[in-house]
UniProtKB/TrEMBL annotation:
PANTHER family: PUTATIVE (AFU_ORTHOLOGUE AFUA_2G17250)-RELATED, RHAMNOGALACTURONAN ACETYLESTERASE
Protein name: Rhamnogalacturonan acetylesterase
One Gene Ontology molecular-function label: hydrolase activity
CDD domains: Rhamnogalacturan_acetylesterase_like
Region (Disordered): 1-29
UniProtKB keywords: Hydrolase
């Protein structure tokens, strides 16, 4: 293993991505994640809004990331929201699996280490107040992790457990729920149960950290909690 300081590359969609001024207070979990690791770790957030496993590659986001990989680099791969959609960026289950496997293979070819994450749950509850399973592609991520011997952080399961603990009302604080005129970027208000508030992004980043610690992953030694 290289003696260089570790570098973490985040690849994924809007739930992970950095946000521009016009999108705030919407926050991707990758932003606070970088604040939870010590100064020896470099975090490069390549995630982009609206990307699936296929379009992240097709639109040129993966190429600069993979070319920068080396030993002591880690690639966190989290997709699903857009792959599952009915939009043109969607992928079939077979395609989704193949794309994940390709990210894993190309990461390892560069001497870096992949980490797979299931997508964070959407905020949906049934009539009994139980969080719904909102990601049909999460089992595919688990399968690839098992078959390819890749560390897995089950962010879907962990975030549903958090929603179950908080309940339908309190869990709104994790997501982008704004009343009209509450924020200049959303004058008509917004009810978004996919994307996170600042507080929600921090909480989701903490769930990822919890996953690293549960894995006894090398990066866990670099976690800095408040």
């Amino acid at each position: 293993m290289s003696s260089e300081s570790p570098t973490v590359h985040l690849i994924g969609d809007s739930t992970m991505a950095e946000k521009g001024a016009s999108e705030r207070p919407q926050t991707g979990w990758g932003t606070p994640f970088a604040e939870y690791v010590d100064e020896s770790v470099t975090v490069k957030n390549h995630a982009c809004n609206g990307r699936s496993t296929r379009t992240f590659r097709e639109l040129g986001h993966w190429e600069p990331a993979v070319e920068a990989l080396a030993e002591n680099h880690y690639v966190f791969v989290q997709f699903g929201h857009n792959d599952e959609s009915s939009k043109p960026r969607a992928t079939t289950e077979v395609e989704f699996t193949a794309h994940l496997e390709r990210y894993v293979e190309e990461t390892r070819e560069r001497g870096a280490e992949p980490v797979l994450l299931t997508p964070i749950t959407r905020r949906q509850f049934d009539g009994e107040g139980e969080p719904k399973e909102t990601h049909p592609y999460s089992p595919l991520v688990r399968d690839v992790a098992r078959q390819r011997d890749v560390p897995l952080i089950d962010a879907d399961e962990r975030s549903r457990a958090l929603l179950r603990e908080m309940g339908p009302e309190a869990s709104k604080s994790l997501f982008l729920h704004l009343s009209p005129d509450e924020h200049a970027n959303y004058p008509d208000g917004v009810t978004d149960d996919t994307h996170f508030s600042r507080a929600g992004a921090r909480r989701m980043a903490e769930l990822v950290l919890d996953g690293l610690e549960a894995l006894d992953h090398e990066l866990a030694a670099h976690i800095v909690r408040d």
